Amino acid sequence: MQSKATTVDEYLAELPAERRAVVETVRQTILANLDPDIEEGMQYGMIGYYVPHRVYPDGYHVDPSHPLPYVALGSQSKHVALYLMTVYASGEEEAWFRKAWTDTGRKLDMGKSCVRFKKLSDVPLDVVGEAIRRVSAADHIAYYESARAERAGAR
User: Fold this and answer.
1) Which member of 23, 57, 59, 155 lies 3.0 to 4.6 Å from 64 by CB, making a disulfide possible if both were Cys?
2) pTM
């Protein structure tokens, strides 16, 4: 569900209390582990974490007026979704993440673009924090540019 909220505070305020508690806790984990060159704001109707134009002037190739997405956190109709572009951009990071999550004994519900969960007890916050810490803004830019170059070469 895309929100029309223009600020993170507005977004959180429109969530039901139980869902807000889950989103706020995951949000705090992200913020506590975030590279200083990544900013938080609203992106695509969710809480977004992105590489701002001051760090990466090219922006996101789909729409260069938007900063480069890094992570997104959103409340969907049946679950909370954590979009970890930092994990999906690197096979090595994805392998690490899958193993670290499942090693906690929790079930990993991970699709092509997001990790889905319903309750906070479903989320190993230490793994989420480490996933954020492992990929700096510079690393994310390098993964992104490498993937774009690879796709361009495949055409």
Assistant:
1) 59
2) 0.92
